[in-house]
Amino acid sequence: MSKNCDVCGRGTVAGNSRSHSNIASKRKFKINLQSKKIDGEKMKVCTKCIKTLSK
């Protein structure tokens, strides 16, 4: 199961989690995907695209 938006193609991004002593450990920033029907087709869309499409 891919964690990419079907509309804009945005996906997960890698970054660092910083502790109190500033030690870096790798983490992932995942996007907020929702299942929505767009033009009768079920798609996985990020919430930023849902907000843009409703305008």
Structure description:
This protein has 55 residues and is mainly β. It has one domain (13-54). 15% of the residues lie in helices and 44% in strands. It is built from 1 helix and 4 strands, in the order ββββα. It has one helix at 47-54, and strands spanning 13-18, 24-29, 33-38, 41-46. The strands form 2 sheets. A two-stranded antiparallel ribbon has the order 1-2. Strand 3 (33-38) and strand 4 form a beta hairpin. The longest helix has 8 residues, at 47-54. The radius of gyration is 15 Å and the shape is elongated. The two termini are 29 Å apart. 9% of the residues are buried. The mean pLDDT is 94.
Note the topology.
Blueprint (H helix, E strand, L loop, with lengths): L12 E6 L5 E6 L3 E6 L2 E6 H8 L1
Antiparallel strand pairs: 1-2, 3-4
- Outline the biggest β-sheet: 2 strands, antiparallel
Order of helices and strands: EEEEH
How does the helix and strand content classify structurally?
mainly beta
Number of strands: 4
The mean pLDDT is 94
Morphology call: elongated
Spell out the key features of this protein.
55 residues, two-stranded antiparallel ribbon, 44% strand, 1 helix
Outline of this structure?
This protein has 55 residues and is mainly beta. It contains one helix and four strands; from the N terminus they run ββββα. It has one domain.
